[in-house]
């Protein structure tokens, strides 16, 4: 018996909570700190004491508007706050302040690269709310509550179900993290729970001319990109298998459900039916006035909107001829991309500067666990190193060596600079010029054609067998020419220009061929 051929399509929407990078909480002045001792960053407002009055954090509101604009949303001119009722140990007020029917941003889109093209994913809405505290289940069976996180500003972003594979959802989450860190509205650190993802997943199955839709599962609280991908891939397989087993496993016949990702077992686990979802009894918060967003505020925020990462990547490719990969690496961190453009403005040839930035400087920065902006090297110095590499004053090996020496000069200053904001302290690095250093270290390439020609002749005379191969043995010609080049480099003490050497060797071989 043959199975009917099934065509399936995975349907995915995402809900994402992004912790905004503010110094204080959403509705009180308590500091937002990750590592503080439990219950040390709390006050009557975030503890939910009766009579305590919340005050809106303007910075959080501005960050939310900025993100909404970056996601091409319509920004609401009138927005309000609602209470979403919960009864939960880590939510002492018994309600969360959120936004229900008038979110501050809605109907936007975000374009992500999918198989070499841009795919538009519609954004349903984005709204501000406050986080709950943390329940810590300890080994003895007690649950401890830490309310330091209670009241931390969260931006909740909801997409339409426009994603159609685990990989697309994975890309979306990564690009969104890039966006919010780039905008500076969130640190986006997964390990600290600063981004939490909740995919809604179901499967459309075409079978015998009909289309079936499995019930939607919402996978709760994923905190890594890999979990997003693995959980969705698993869930789509599970739903298809459940439908194959029982064709009544479809919407309207079976409830939608919440599921949790068990990373150890690599499976999703049933939590509860959506039908039994609590009634949140939303109603406007009487303690908070609605926010009217003025033209001035919109203009102010719009002026803060930078060129966004995906557009900037594309521009680095088209404007400077960078490879897509190098552009992506450079644009991953806004400060790094800004610095790179300063290096170009300082006169560096873009192609060599791009390669050197990624292959030399970013590597050296990674080794030190800092951004390239923290290395203490000035744009002019980066530019000069790229220039003297591009014009053949030094070769690539020498450039690598010089970069390390430049860091040894700059490093004591870089240490004062290791703040996380990526902002540079005003300490100036020493004014060492790479060219001057190259001269001191004897790394300048010999561009003297007459001298190089003399080395070539010397190498030819000393290696008649290699010359013979280079001239007459097609199988070994290339290797023999390479060997002769190596000999010339040796004779020059590593200072010959490899390109010039190559050209002069070819010239000499052509001459000998002509004589034969
Ligand atoms: Zn507080
Ligand atoms: Mn939420």
Description:
This protein has 516 residues and is α+β, with helices and mostly antiparallel strands. The protein has helices at 58-70, 166-183, 225-245, 295-304, 309-320, 324-331, 334-345, 350-367, 379-390, 396-414, 434-440, 449-462, 464-472, 477-491, 498-515; strands at 7-19, 74-75, 78-79, 82-85, 95-98, 105-114, 117-130, 134-137, 143-146, 153-159, 195-207, 210-213, 217-220, 257-262, 267-273, 283-284, 291-292. Strands 1, 2, 6, 7, 10, 11, 12, 13, 14 and 15 form a ten-stranded mixed β-sheet that branches. α5 crosses α6, α12 (449-462) packs across α14 and α13 packs antiparallel against α14 (477-491). The model is unreliable at 412-429 (pLDDT under 50). The protein binds zinc ion and manganese (II) ion (MN).
Structural class: alpha+beta
Give the beta-strand count.
Answer: 17
Q: Helix amount, in percent?
A: 25-40%
Alpha plus pi helix count: 15
- Tell me which ligands are bound: zinc ion, manganese (II) ion
How many structural domains can be distinguished in the coordinates?
Answer: 3
The coarse silhouette is: elongated
Mean pLDDT: 91
The main sheet comes to:
10 strands, mixed
SS strand fraction: 15-25%
SSE topology sketch:
Layout lengths: L6 E13 L38 H13 L3 E2 L2 E2 L2 E4 L9 E4 L6 E10 L2 E14 L3 E4 L5 E4 L6 E7 L6 H18 L11 E13 L2 E4 L3 E4 L4 H21 L11 E6 L4 E7 L9 E2 L6 E2 L2 H10 L4 H12 L3 H8 L2 H12 L4 H18 L11 H12 L5 H19 L19 H7 L8 H14 L1 H9 L4 H15 L6 H18 L1
Parallel strand pairs: 13-14
Antiparallel strand pairs: 1-10, 1-11, 2-6, 3-17, 4-5, 4-16, 6-7, 7-10, 8-9, 11-12, 11-13, 14-15
Helix pairs in contact: 1-4, 2-3, 5-6, 6-8, 7-9, 8-9, 12-14, 12-15, 13-14, 14-15
Bound molecules: zinc ion and manganese (II) ion.
């Amino acid at each position: 018996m043959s199975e009917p051929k099934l065509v399936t399509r995975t349907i995915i929407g995402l809900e994402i909570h992004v912790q905004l990078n503010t110094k204080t909480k959403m509705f009180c002045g308590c500091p937002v700190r990750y590592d503080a001792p439990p219950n040390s960053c709390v006050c009557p407002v975030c503890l939910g004491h009766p009579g305590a009055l919340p005050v809106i954090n303007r910075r959080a509101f501005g960050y939310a508007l900025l993100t909404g604009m970056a996601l091409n949303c319509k920004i609401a001119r009138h927005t309000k706050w609602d209470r979403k009722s919960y009864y939960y140990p880590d939510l002492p007020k018994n309600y969360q302040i959120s936004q229900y029917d008038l979110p501050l941003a809605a109907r936007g889109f975000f374009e992500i690269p999918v198989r070499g093209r841009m795919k538009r994913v519609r954004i349903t809405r984005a709204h501000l709310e406050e986080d709950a505290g943390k329940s810590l289940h300890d080994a003895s069976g007690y649950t401890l509550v830490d309310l330091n996180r209670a009241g931390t500003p969260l931006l909740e972003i909801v997409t339409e179900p426009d994603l159609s594979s685990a990989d697309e959802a994975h890309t979306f989450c990564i690009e969104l993290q890039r966006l919010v860190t780039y905008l500076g509205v969130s640190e986006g650190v997964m390990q600290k729970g600063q981004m939490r993802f909740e995919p809604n997943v179901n499967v459309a199955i075409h079978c015998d001319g009909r289309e079936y839709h499995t019930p939607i599962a919402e996978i709760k609280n994923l905190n890594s990109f890999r979990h997003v991908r693995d959980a969705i891939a698993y869930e789509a397989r599970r739903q298809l298998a459940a439908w194959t087993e029982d064709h009544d496993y479809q919407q309207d016949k079976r409830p939608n459900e919440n599921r949790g990702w068990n990373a150890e077992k690599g499976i999703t686990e049933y939590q509860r039916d959506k039908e039994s979802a609590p009634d949140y009894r939303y109603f406007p918060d009487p303690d908070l006035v609605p926010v009217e967003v003025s033209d001035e505020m919109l203009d102010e925020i719009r002026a803060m909107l930078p060129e966004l990462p995906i557009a900037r990547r594309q521009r680095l490719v088209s404007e400077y001829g960078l490879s897509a990969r190098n552009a992506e690496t450079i644009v991953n961190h806004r400060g790094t991309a800004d610095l790179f453009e300063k290096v170009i403005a300082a006169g560096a040839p873009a192609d060599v500067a791009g390669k050197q930035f990624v292959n030399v400087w970013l590597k050296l920065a990674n080794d030190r666990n800092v951004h390239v902006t923290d290395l203490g090297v000035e744009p002019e110095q980066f530019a000069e190193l790229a220039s003297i590499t591009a014009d053949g004053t030094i070769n690539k090996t020498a450039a690598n060596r010089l970069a390390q020496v430049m860091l040894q000069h700059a490093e004591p200053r870089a240490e004062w600079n290791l703040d996380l904001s990526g902002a540079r302290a005003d300490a100036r690095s020493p004014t060492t010029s790479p060219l001057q250093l190259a001269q001191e270290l004897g790394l300048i390439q010999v561009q003297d054609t007459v001298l190089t020609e003399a080395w070539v002749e010397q190498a030819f005379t000393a290696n008649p067998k290699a010359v013979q191969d280079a001239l007459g043995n097609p199988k070994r010609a290339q290797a023999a020419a390479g060997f002769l080049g190596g000999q010339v480099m040796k004779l020059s003490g590593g200072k010959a220009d490899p390109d010039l050497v190559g050209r002069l060797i070819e010239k000499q071989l052509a001459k000998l061929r002509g004589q034969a």
